[in-house]
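Example 9 (inverse folding). The structure is encoded as follows.
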């Protein structure tokens, strides 16, 4: 299953018209479909790695819009992929501010010597790598995947994407990077298991922050992060 981008699909005047076409489809099986999203960039200098379950519809929309604009501006592939990840990774008017609020609550700015959580997507963006258990856009029965890791395991194409694109990218990261799993404990456990499988000797812990959907963002209560030593 190739993850090389068909760049022309992003050059349309309406970028979202390129989503869910034969050119953007990576794989399908039964009710499950995997669509390309330009999230291949790995920030090798990152000291903090945020891990979600899969990109959501807002991230997909932002990614295609940003990529299309940069392609038309003549930017290089490397510049496009880096900027798309910075702009679209956990992007959106609800998700990003909510995530920044959590990072600030737990003083990630102090831990990584940056001004605040916003800095990870601004001046200190080289310190952050955003990714997901399924890094590409996953659909089940025409709805974007927003379930558990058990659902990823139960789908051959989602599991393959997890092993190839998430687990396969870990060796490119700084072995001293700290991983934060956004979601329920199973995401944390499987993130930890993935790291163990890479035999990175200096990765010390995986922290889990409970991330809730945008609709619940305003009423979200913050709990202390759980730590899984590996």
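The amino acid assigned to each position is listed next.
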């Amino acid at each position: 299953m190739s993850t090389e981008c068909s760049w022309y699909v992003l050059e349309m005047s309406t970028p979202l018209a390129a989503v869910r076409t034969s050119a953007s489809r990576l794989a399908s099986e039964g009710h499950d479909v995997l669509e390309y999203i330009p999230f291949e960039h790995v920030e090798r200098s990152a000291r903090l790695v945020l891990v979600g379950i899969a990109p959501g519809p807002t991230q997909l929309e932002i990614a295609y819009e940003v990529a299309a604009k940069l392609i038309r501006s003549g930017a290089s592939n490397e510049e496009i992929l880096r900027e798309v990840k910075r702009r679209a990774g956990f992007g959106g008017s609800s998700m990003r501010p909510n995530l920044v609020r959590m990072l600030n609550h737990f003083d990630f700015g102090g831990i990584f010597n940056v001004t605040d959580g916003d800095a990870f997507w601004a001046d200190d963006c080289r310190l952050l790598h955003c990714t997901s258990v399924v890094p590409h856009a996953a659909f089940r029965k025409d709805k974007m995947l927003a379930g558990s890791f058990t659902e990823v395991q139960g789908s051959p194409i989602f599991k393959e994407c997890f092993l190839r694109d998430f687990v396969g990218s870990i060796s490119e990261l700084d072995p001293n990077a700290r991983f934060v799993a956004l979601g329920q404990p199973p995401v944390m456990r499987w993130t930890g298991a993935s790291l163990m499988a890479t035999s990175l000797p200096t990765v010390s812990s995986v922290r889990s922050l409970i991330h809730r959907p945008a609709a619940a963002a305003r009423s979200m209560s913050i709990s202390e992060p759980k730590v899984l030593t590996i």
